[in-house]
Amino acid sequence: MTSLVLTLSETLRYRGAIGQWSWVLHRISGLGVVLFLTLHVIDTSWAVFYPELYVDAIAAYQSPIFTLGEFGLVACVIYHALNGLRIAIFDARPKLWKHQARAAVIVLAATAIILIPTFLIMFAHVLNFYNEGRPVMNIVDAVVKQAPFAAGIAVAIIAAVLLSAVSSVIIPARKSQGRGSTVERFWWSFMRVSGLLIVPLVFGHLAMIHLIQGVFDITLAGHTVVGTTLANETGTAVEFVANRWGMLVGGVAVWKLYDFALLALVVIHGFNGLRYVLTDYTSGSRFAKSAAIYLCVIGAVVLLTLGGLALLNTIDSSAIELAQEATRALHGG
User: Fold this and answer.
1) Which DSSP helix (H) or strand (E) runs through 249?
2) Choosing a second label site near 241 at 20 to 30 A (CA), which of 56, 105, 138, 314?
3) Cα dihedral sign for 153, 200, 229, 71?
């Protein structure tokens, strides 16, 4: 906690120096993306395993509070991606670091330039949704429905603490190898390479799911699912996912492969980034640092397992029927 307080106090004392603020923004945006990633992977898996819950999840995402969150998410993703590219370029060419302040300003400007048309397109989807008078989940219900996620995170934290306690007894303390270790050099390289690979995948996903066919459009009956030639006949989010993952090109489920790559890269990149952040603030305690690492491992394993199993399965007609029934029940139809 001492190092966290020091970070906050020194950031405020920096009097707006761009290097410090870009570092802070990179961490904050990364944490925001990891939080959404956790929710998104779990609730998307529900389209396969619990169609009724997926109907509730999408209804919550279409509520006002999550609409604001969607705008914040897109801003976090774009800034984090562009600033990550800046870091990767300067790490590859250390002589360029003297230009890092100017580059940080360019990243902020580029983020703003990209966000202006992006937000306008997203806002058009929002206006269309409310102008059509479609049912909207109230804010209280939308927040309450996130209770299982909060409970799951709490369980993961408790499990991480218990594992840290057990390991501290079984495994003797060892001198840390620090950032110069082979393992840490691998993760340093992985973060740069994976970041470069993630950018086109994430930007493509944002374009398809937030711009071309936004969150509000995936429950419109009769609309062709983005990236496919299949129409969402029932107007359920479950059929949207089923059509997208069922799209075959030359016998290959291209969007499943796309989402597999996105899942693996983003989850490992995101939770390793979270590890960096948490261990920075727990470095003074072996127990707390170990618990932070276990928490990141648990989070990554759970998301990779759930997401991978969902992608390996198929969504049949019975799941879509359950989604229709849940939609009628949700809106009193």
Assistant:
1) strand 248-249
2) 138
3) positive
Lowest mean pLDDT among 34-38, 175-179, 194-198, 297-301: 175-179
223: its two tokens: 């609309």
CA pair distance 115, 71, nearest whole angstrom: 9
The DSSP symbol for 229 reads: S
Those residues with Cβ within 8 angstroms of residue 231's Cβ, 6 or more apart along the chain or in another chain: 222, 223, 224, 225, 243
Phi and psi of 252, rounded to 5°?
-110, 130
pTM of the model: 0.90
CB 91 within 8 A of CB 192: yes
DSSP, res 222: T
For residue 60, which of 75, 45, 40, 90 has the smallest C-alpha distance?
40
CB 45 within 8 A of CB 309: yes
3-state secondary structure of 316: coil
Q: List, in order, residues 6 or more apart from 37 with CB less than 8 Å away.
A: 266, 267, 270, 303
Beta-ladder partners of 224:
231
Task: From residue 23, give the alpha-carbon distance in Å to each of 58, 83, 85, 106, 269.
Answer: 33, 9, 13, 14, 17
Burial profile 287-309: b = 16 or more Cβ within 10 angstroms, e = fewer: ebbbbbbbbbbbbbebbbebbbe
pLDDT of residue 180: 59
- Looking at residue 2, its pLDDT comes to 47
Cα–Cα dist 30/266, whole Å: 11
Instruction: Please say whether the beta carbons of 244 and 227 come within 8 A.
Output: yes
CA pair distance 219, 240, nearest whole angstrom: 8
Task: Count the neighbouring beta carbons within 10 Å of the beta carbon of residue 315.
Answer: 23
pLDDT over threshold 80, residue 331: no
Which among 11, 19, 225 is positioned nearest to 102, based on CA atoms?
19
Q: Are strands 252-253 and 248-249 parallel, antiparallel or unpaired?
A: antiparallel
> What's the rounded Cα separation, in Å, for the pair 146 and 40?
12
For residue 252, the SS3 value is: strand
